[in-house]
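Appendix C: a fully annotated inverse folding record. The material below is reproduced so that readers can follow the format used throughout the book. The structure is listed first as tokens, followed by the designed sequence.
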């Protein structure tokens, strides 16, 4: 649990929905136009505070902790549903807050895995969505195990994707609540060197909040990262059926149907130019690591190339645009996977202009 005080203007609430107890941060006026912020993996709503407070007064900012993160309940994640457990949780919260029949459609802002969640929500409830802002979103074809812009699997069992890709030392330190910076696999170092561009450093006060946010993740087979299955195919692991990381496996996650939704909310796609997590050369992708010689036995680029994550996202949005929708892509200079924190003024300005 994060015990550090909230920024002035942000309040904390616990809402019980039919699906789970959801903790959320709010800002702005209750009658304002709702803007819902959805965080990514191994973090919580605390990363959104500055962005929420930057919104003009006519908006109501809402940032929930998703299941298994922050102070929300750690209900199990059924990975075979892709990100639909999270989308259904979000809709249950929307209904509990009385927003489903609101005169204002919802503006959704999703970061990383949260980008996939809000895309899934738009697929499930297109009539409720006014716009989408996606910040370094997960590929529409999930994470690891696909080879081209169309999301073709490298292996029939999607080997290389899922919970087995999480570094065991990082997982051990997450479970132990490690706050040190003594190895590359400590949560603090992952924050500094992977979530952020390494040249960026948050203030000491905010860094402690972000580390606490990471350590609030519920670790285990039912939540983060999930269970692991063996595979006869390289690199020897395949997705299980439980947990967050398995829910992002292309075995279960396919958001390409977003291209055909009606009505069509406008999309603003923001991505850090130095993102090493969601990238066509991702430091978390077995295909790219194998190509670099860091994982032995790589079967070669014909079988298991680096996943073209950015190209996959762009291909889906190009189809969306060809179907009559509208999207805009903005690359945020001097930022990694977290431009909302690394370049807050740039991101806030783009979001506010887009919402207007």
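Designed amino acids, in order:
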């Amino acid at each position: 649990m994060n015990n550090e005080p909230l920024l002035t203007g942000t309040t904390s609430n616990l809402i019980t929905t039919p699906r789970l107890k959801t903790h959320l941060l709010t800002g702005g006026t209750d009658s304002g136009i709702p803007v819902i912020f959805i965080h990514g993996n191994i973090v919580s709503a605390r990363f959104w505070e500055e962005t929420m407070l930057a919104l003009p007064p006519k908006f109501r900012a809402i940032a929930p902790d998703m299941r298994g993160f922050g102070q929300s309940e750690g209900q199990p994640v059924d990975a075979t549903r892709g990100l639909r457990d999270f989308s259904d949780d979000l809709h249950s919260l929307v209904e509990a807050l009385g927003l489903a029949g609101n005169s204002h459609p919802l503006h959704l802002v999703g970061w990383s895995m949260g980008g996939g969640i809000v895309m899934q929500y738009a697929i499930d409830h297109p009539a409720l969505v006014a716009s989408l802002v996606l910040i370094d979103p997960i590929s529409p074809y999930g994470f690891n195990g696909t080879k081209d812009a169309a999301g073709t699997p490298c292996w029939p069992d999607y080997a290389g994707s899922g919970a087995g890709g999480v570094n065991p030392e990082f997982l051990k330190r997450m479970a132990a609540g490690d706050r040190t910076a003594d190895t590359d696999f400590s949560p603090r170092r992952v924050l500094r060197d992977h979530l952020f561009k390494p040249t960026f450093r948050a203030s000491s006060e905010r860094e402690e909040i972000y580390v606490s946010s990471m350590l609030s993740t519920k670790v285990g087979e039912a939540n983060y990262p999930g269970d692991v299955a063996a595979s006869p195919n390289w690199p020897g692991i395949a997705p299980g059926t439980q947990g967050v990381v398995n829910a992002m496996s292309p075995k279960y996650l396919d958001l390409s149907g977003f291209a055909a939704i009606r009505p069509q909310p406008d999309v603003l796609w923001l991505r850090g130019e130095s993102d090493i997590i969601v990238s066509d050369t991702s430091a978390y992708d077995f295909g790219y690591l194998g190509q670099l010689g860091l994982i032995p036995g790589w079967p070669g680029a014909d079988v298991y190339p680096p996943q073209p994550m950015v190209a996959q996202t762009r291909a889906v949005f190009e189809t969306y645009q060809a179907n009559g929708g509208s999207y805009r892509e903005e690359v945020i200079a001097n930022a990694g996977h977290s431009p909302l924190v690394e370049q807050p003024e740039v991101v806030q300005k783009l979001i506010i202009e887009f919402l207007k």
